[in-house]
């Protein structure tokens, strides 16, 4: 019996010395509840609570350790990164450049305008995909304007060339749209393009939903990159919510009451009444009843005073 009680209270976290003292005082046949009450009265705490009460000392973790403590961070890491709340951006370079060049010229300046727009918003992950053969000197059937911008964006690790090669004088080009959709899908980002990628939607049902929900269309107005304020329609999210991982719900706007001061609903009215902002929310009927009761009571008291000798 003694050993079983010792094991029981040791599992609860109490020390063996405290348990022995209590059992000596109360006897070996004491009930477990009585022993527990006596332990609590003595002020004895389980070992887990004592460990929590002691101030925890920070431990140095080796650089190669696989399980660093979650409270510690490596030097140079920022505690809060605002870019974490913004979605990655994947730009269809060919689509943007041809749109800026009126579908006649591959205008690299259009790509720069789009990249600058997202940079100003605070996006840090921006990738532009362009076929490798756009690096070659321009030809009459495919003119390129401001080709040096591609080299600058490549040095900044923003522009990525999709592979292509020549086989027996013929150019073999990999499908760059597949790169765009795949990277955006894996990064849970946004595709910037006016293309609907219908062939890729039919190819993969998961890509179909992703393209429908994460495709950001745009327009160029006087060398100004302008995406719509409502990317998914009038009843969809705003542009800022569309581009952020944590959308912010809009504040509830109260609609003013169409009846105004003539409204008789009182506190039951679901519309906004600016004139009742600092008043008690009672119905107009109750308010009228309260007003009519006062003069009636005053008149009765006056009649009583006149009739009395």
UniProtKB/TrEMBL annotation:
Under the heading Pfam families, the entry gives:
RNase_Zc3h12a, UBA_6
Ranges for domain C3H1-type come to 251-276
Keyword vocabulary terms for this entry: Endonuclease, Hydrolase, Magnesium, Metal-binding, Nuclease, Zinc, Zinc-finger
* Needed cofactors: Mg(2+)
User: Is the keyword Zinc-finger assigned to this protein?
Assistant: yes
Keyword Magnesium belongs to the record: yes
Domain of life of the organism encoding this protein: Eukaryota
The Gene Ontology CC terms held by the record are:
cytoplasmic ribonucleoprotein granule; nucleus
What Gene Ontology molecular function terms does this protein carry? Answer: hydrolase activity; mRNA binding; RNA endonuclease activity; zinc ion binding
Task: Give, as residue ranges, the zinc fingers classified C3H1-type.
Answer: 251-276
Family, per entry: Belongs to the ZC3H12 family.
The name this protein goes by in its record: ZC12D ribonuclease
Protein species of origin: Calcarius ornatus
Q: Which gene encodes it?
A: Zc3h12d
């Amino acid at each position: 019996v003694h050993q079983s009680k010792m094991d029981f209270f040791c599992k609860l976290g109490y020390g063996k010395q405290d348990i022995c003292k209590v059992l000596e005082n109360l006897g070996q046949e004491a009930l477990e509840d009585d022993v527990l009450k006596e332990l609590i009265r003595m002020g004895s705490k389980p070992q887990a609570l004592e460990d929590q009460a002691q101030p925890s000392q920070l431990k140095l973790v080796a650089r190669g350790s696989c399980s660093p403590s979650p409270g510690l961070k490596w030097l140079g890491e920022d505690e809060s990164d605002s870019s974490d709340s913004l979605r990655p951006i994947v730009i269809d370079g060919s689509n943007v450049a041809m749109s800026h060049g009126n579908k006649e010229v591959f205008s690299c300046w259009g790509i720069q305008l789009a990249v600058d727009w997202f940079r100003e918003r605070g996006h840090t992950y921006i990738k532009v995909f362009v076929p490798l053969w756009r690096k070659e000197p321009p030809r009459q059937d495919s003119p390129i304007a401001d080709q040096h911008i591609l080299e600058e964006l490549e040095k900044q690790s923003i522009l990525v060339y999709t592979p292509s090669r020549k086989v027996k004088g013929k150019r073999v080009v990999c499908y760059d749209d597949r790169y765009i959709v795949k990277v955006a899908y894996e990064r849970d980002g946004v595709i910037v393009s006016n293309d609907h990628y219908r062939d890729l939607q039919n190819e993969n049902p998961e890509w179909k939903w992703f393209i429908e929900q994460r495709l950001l269309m745009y327009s160029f107005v006087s060398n100004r990159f302008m995406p719509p304020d409502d990317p998914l329609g009038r009843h969809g999210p705003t542009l800022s919510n569309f581009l952020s991982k944590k959308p912010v719900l809009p504040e509830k706007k109260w609609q003013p009451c169409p009846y105004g001061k003539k409204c008789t609903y009182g506190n039951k009215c679901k519309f906004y009444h600016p004139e009742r902002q600092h008043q008690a929310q009672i119905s107009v009927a109750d308010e009228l009843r309260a007003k009519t009761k006062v003069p009636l009571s005053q008149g009765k008291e006056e009649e009583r005073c006149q009739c009395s000798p």
